[in-house]
Structures are given as structure tokens and as C-alpha cells.
Amino acid sequence: MSVTPGRKTVVTIDAPTHSTVEPRYYLEVEDEMISAGGPDFADHVELIPTIGWRLASYQRVASEKHEKSVADASAITPSNGNATVATGLLEVSVQRANTELTGVALGSQRAAGDKHLQKNVAAGATFAAELADGAAFTKPDSANDTVPLDRVLVSKEIHEPYQTITVTLYPMPANGLKTVQRIIRIYFSGIPGSTATDTAAKKGVGAYSLALSGDGTAELYERLKDNTWRFRKLFQWAAPSDVAGKAHTITIASDATKEGGKWVGSKIMFEFGSVGNALEAAVRGITSFATGPRWQYYHVPQFDKSIAPTLQPIRADVRRDVRAIFQFHVARYFPSGTLKSGNFGLAHPPTGDEPIRLEYYGDIPEGTSVDCALYDADGTALVLDDSPTVATLTSGARSFLPVTRHRFFYAVFTLHASADGKKTPTVHRMRVIRHATLKAYTPEPVVPIRVTGLSFTGAGPDPMTESGLIAIEDLEGSLTSLRTRGKQPVRVEVRYDPADPTKVSRLFQGYAVTTRGKRKGSARTEDVGGSFMRPRQFPSANWREFTVRCAGEWAKLARMQAPALIAFNNDPALAKPTPYKVTDVVRRLLWDAGYPEEMVDVPDMPIRFFSDGKTSLLVEQYTELGPLIVQLVRDYLGGYLIFDQNVGDFGAWRVKLAPRPPYRNLAEFVTDRTWTAPGLRQGMNLNAYDPTTDAGGQVVKRVPIRKGTLVEEPVPPECNILYVTGVGSPGGSLSKSGSDNSVALSQWTYNPKSAWLFDDQPVPPDPESPDYLGYALPLYYSDGGLNTPHAVNFTLRRIYDMAAHGQLRKTFEAPLVLVQDQSDPLAARLRPLMFGDGILFNGEQYIVDSCNADYSGRSGGDRIQAAAYEIFQVPALQDYSLPTLGRTD
């Protein structure tokens, strides 16, 4: 090999680079973490766990409901015209003002009210009194009622799933009441439930019944499409000793909401409370004296999310021999309320005008609204910047200008109910974002005059392997920075058009890891005749030979850490809790590592993190971001993280996915010796060989390989039987030990061409296949994070593609060819081949694994500019990223 015509290599030390001046700030918190101060930070706002912060209802504040009339209209009673009740059910007021007392005026107190329903039976009359609806709308498990429960209340209005119901119940003391069976059934609407094993007739319709029993247990049932009922969950609503003679409250809430005319949601919440007697309940407020866990919830299984709920009125069945006093309310909310967050601190005191963006997510029904504001920790309100305010039915956002050099701030949310008080907004999540302030550094570049050697490993499947070695002769001792500093940014470019020096291709970009200089000059002089003295070591006393070992851009990314705890459970682009897209997370982690958007190229893909809605998806603070990003790209996307130095001014991190047919080949390597101009061929002159153009217009460079350098190697599969195991339930939700039918989720597959793996194997093994081993080689993979069947199947397919097939690999030397992918919108410059590029080898399809350049020269320009190429193919897969088991991702 001799001269590479038309090429000139330029090495730049202290090349232009970028840096983060003020790091990106990101805070995302949910539910109780929004307001660390709890009730002390909330005014007329309350938290419903796992759902979010809502306006408090008047029914939840005892003084408002009992002594004032503001909530009277929402009681479900005949006098309000919104209920039908059975014969003998009377309305009674449990509140009366003491106006007969001298000097006691009503003020804001009403004279009498807080109407409840009470069963009244005349002497000798029958206790049996039921509405006709009791037969028309069947009762769950009524055959096992020891005493009949009569349908005594039906609301005239349909109950919608978003409406919160509050029930107050005062069961009268009765002999043996502590041990009786069901006392009351409460009927309401909710999100329909279904599992993977349900037939069409056995899917739920969203009509629920909650049965309270004298032993303190509560049974939740759902009505099915065939009008039968199915038991869903058992709760503890009271201690058995508290049932008789005490007052109780039952609150039923949901995260249900309407999106595009369709009901969506996943949780039904129940709060049960008990106090000593009815007077305490009325005056002190039941919920403040609740016993046991405040909230319990039912997670609705939704295998079939297309089912619309069959909405029903509120109903009540009461045990025939119990003269209970009870009251049903549909929540009416305070007009407004405020929620204050805890203080949060930016990692760096702000000095620029980059705004702080405050976002909230939840459910904001039509007619309701949420205002948000940011305050300095000293109470000073931050000024809005000129960004538009965003407000939708699921989220909102405003941007504020920070106070210079002040780090700590807090947020205030003001929630507004609908005009009729029947709807409340919900704030489930808060995000605070301040984008990083980046600065481009362009120090005085150093361009060594004499570079005597350069070699580097190009972008392969693992970014940490990209490295370089540069040999520099500093004849005059002018490269002082190489003697005094380390970690300088390094860039290597090739000028490939002598007539246009702006046409360059970057071969390498990274950082000097070690710089070693060997002094070759000397201060000693010698007499060369007359009075002239010269240095003994020509050409300079400061002559040095430097060897610079470099690492690619990975050297920087590998040192970056997560600035804060990051959660990926809930994608803010969606109304309901849904894990993030993996590509969105990869993009964000690269931003957190300090790379601006123009240096991040990650395609948008639909693949999301595996989650059952219960398991937290967290990145702990100070996690090393580089290895995490590589793992996410490999495991979820089946792709690779590569730094492409030829994108933009500073290069870009790119996610490279496995190529899919039809392949776009960028070059063809040939061993054919019948080419014309053999002298030029031996000189490795690419200009001597005419490129071709494929049907899509892609230029395909034709490149000869160096004689005697071709090496071929078959690589056997790593396994031919694969087992993947997770932990969860068949319905797709992660199960805690001892609950929800916890099972080991598992799946397996095999490669029949590799060996006889079991009797009556339908496809015989093929000894001619690269996949053939002739014996069983199993691989077991277990991950507790695989908590759904989809997650297990997805992982099985991904590992199978990568590990269960043989490969054919070739290595050889050839000229360093520069290509341009015409389908790549970011390909502004020619570049070397990189991992994942499609190429032809003597007309046969291969994929590039790596391109490792080598340069050696003397004064006057390049002498040899070649590369060692590694290519491979997977004969068993036309497209090694596609499924073997019916993949749809």
C-alpha cells in the first residue's frame, strides 16, 4: 500500500466542546410527596392516596354538613326529590339549634336539618318493606343472607363513576348484632373489571355492590354481563366490637374520568371510620376518629378496556330486622382550596434568565380549573415569563423567572370546583423543570504540524471501546499544553477534497486520557565551524515526541451521574398512570448528563417500561448514567448507543437500531482481481473504482480489500433453549406474597435447527446451519422486575434473537472509505462506516460491527490511510431485530 490520494489528516488539541454551566434541575413528585407538610399545607384540600389532591367536600367537614345547610341539597332523600324509598322509611333531622336559650342566635347555623333516613315499624306491623327494584335488580349472594336485606333506597339520578359517595350509618343496638351477617349493601357505578380468563358473558359491567357485615368485614361484588355477580375483594370496615352501637362513615371514591367520551380509571377507594355514638359523629366528625387504615383500595383488573360501564343509580339494601339510621350523600365540594408544596432547591444558584417551569398533572374536568404559582422561599412571588400558560383536561404548566442567586422555592396550587360544586379537579403529580444552561467553549485550538501516526477503534456496539492513539512530533517544543494539562478535547478530521478545505470528515472525537512526552532535544551545543554553535539535538532543544492515548465521548458520559431521584412510573403525556416510553427516558437521561438537544438523536418508539401500576420505577440519585443508558437501549430496544462525531458542530449521541429490510448498503467490499488499473488498485486509490447507485438513489462505494488480510470465523450460538422467569399474576399485575394469586411467570423457546431437544420435535436439526450445536445448551434468565406476561415474552424474544443464533464474521483490511447515508437527515458530512451499517461483501449481505482506522505518515501528507473492518451476518434471521415468536413491538 502506498499513498492515499486526495486525503489530508488534521489533529486538533483543545477542540471546540460544550459544557454545562448550570445543571438541569428536575423534580417530579406525586400525591403526599407534593406537600411534605400534609394537612398543615392544605386549605380545603385533601389527599386521596394513589389518586391525588382534591378539594374537600362539605360532607367531609362535620360542622359544614351538620350545622349548615350548604350540603343539604346533595343528600339523597325524598324531600330533595332525588330518591325513592321503601314504605316505613322516614326522614329525621339529627340537628336542632338551641334557639330557646336566651341570647343564642342562629348566626350561620340553620334551625334544624341534617336529614337522615330511619326505618319505622308500627306495633304489630310487618318489618318486610321493599321496593320493586329489589326484584328487578338482583342482589349479590342473596341466597346466603341469614336475614333478607330489603331494597329501601334508589336514587333518581344515575351515579357516575367519578362521583364520591359518603354514607353515614348509625345501626341501633340489637341483641347479637356483633355476630350477624350482612347489615347493608351499597350499590354504585365504577370502571368495569375483566381478566384474561373471562368469557364475554363473565366480564364486569362496572355495577358494584359493597356489603357490610356485623363481623366488621365488607365484601365487594361486581355485576357481570350475564346479570350474575362476582366477588372481587374483601375489606375490614370496622372492628367487630365496634359495629353495634357506634356510628360509622363509609366514603367511596374513584380515579375514574372521561377521556374522549370514554370512561377510564383503575382504582376504587374506600375509607371506613367509626366513633362511639351518633352525637360524636355529628359534632366531632367521624373521619377524624377513624379506626384502622384510613383508605383501602381495589385495583380494577382491566384485561378488556373496551367495555363501557353500565351506569346505575345509587341503591341501598338494609337488613330487615335492623332499624338503622343512615344517610347517603353525593359529594359537594368547597368552591376553592389551596395546596402548598414543600421547599425545593435548585442544584446551582440561578444566574441566567432560564425560566423555571412548573407543571401539574391529574384530572381537570370541564368547568373546574387549577391555578399554579411559584414563590421564593421568603414568600416573594416569582414573575411569569413570556411563555404561554398551558391548561388541558389532564395537565397545566406555567413558567417563571427565578430570583437571581436564590436556590429555594415552593409551589402553590389553587383548585377551583365547578359552579354547581359537583366536580373537583385532581392534582396527582407535580414537576419542576429548569433546563441546563450550556456553554460552547472554543479555546485557542492547537494543531500539531507533524503527526506521525494515528489509529483508533471506531463506533462499535459498545461505546466504551472507542479509543485512539496519536503520535506527535513537537519539533520546536511549542505544544506546551500537552506538557501541562490533561483531558483536553481532541478531534481528528480528514480533508478529502484538496480544492475545498471545508469538506471534512471527522474520524474521531474524544478526550486525551494520558499524554506522555519523551524529550529528544538537548540544551547541549556543538561547534560546527567558526563561531557558529547549534543544538546537539536537531532541530530544537525542546524537541519532544508525544504519545496521546484518547477515549471517545464515552469518557465524559461515563462520569455523569443522576442529579436527583428520577421516577418513570407516570408518563406526563398521558392522563392516567402509564410508564414512560423507554426512548423518552433515554433522551432525558442524556439531557441530565449535560448534552443539549442538538447532541441527542433518539427515535420515538412505542416500547414502554414494564409495570403493573404498583411497582416504582426509580433511578436513584447519583446513579452513573452512561451504563444505565446503554442497558436500557440494549435490553428494551434491542439497539445500541453510538456517538456520531459527524452530526452538527459537536457530534451527537444516537440510538442505533438493528437494520431492517430492505437494507440500505453504503459500500461494497470486493476481492475480485479482474479490476482495471491494477496499479491504482494496489495503491488503495478509491477514486480508481466507480461507485454504483442502488434503486433508492443511495451511492454505494466499491472498495477493494487488501490481499492476504481476510479472516473468516463462525461464532456458535450461546444457547439453543431459553427460559425466562418473572413474578406476577396471569392478569398482568405484580402480586405481593400471599395475595392476588401470585405466580411465577415463565416462558420458554428453543432453536430446532440446533439439536434434537425433545421427542417428536416438529423441525429436525440441520447440521449445515450455523445454529447447529448437536446438544442441548440451556440459558436461564430470571428477573423479578418482569411482572407481566408481556414483559416475560418481550424479554424472551429479545434474548433469543441475540443469543440463540450463530453468526458468520469476517475481518479484513481495506482503504478507509467515507460514506454518506442519504436516508439520514443528520448526515451533513461524509463519515467512516460504523456499527449497524449495511454493506455488501462480494455481493452478499453483511452488517458492519466496527471500523478501526489506521494512519501512518511523514512530512508532506498521508502515506497510508487504511482501516481494519469487522463485519458479520446472522444467517438464521433475515432481520435480526424481528421476532421469532410473533413479535408486535
Describe the structure.
By secondary structure, this protein is mainly β. It contains 9 helices and 57 strands. Strands 1, 33, 34, 35, 36, 39, 45, 46, 47, 48, 52, 55, 56 and 57 form a 14-stranded mixed sheet that branches. Strands 3, 5, 6, 25, 27, 28, 29 and 31 form an 8-stranded antiparallel sheet that branches. Strands 7-10-21-12-13-14-15 form a 7-stranded antiparallel sheet, with no helix packed on it. α6 packs antiparallel against α7. It is elongated. The C terminus is likely disordered.
Give a short summary of the structure.
The chain has nine helices and 57 strands. The strands form twelve sheets. Strands 1, 33, 34, 35, 36, 39, 45, 46, 47, 48, 52, 55, 56 and 57 form a 14-stranded mixed sheet that branches. Strands 3, 5, 6, 25, 27, 28, 29 and 31 form an eight-stranded antiparallel sheet that branches. Strands 7-10-21-12-13-14-15 form a seven-stranded antiparallel sheet, with no helix packed on it.
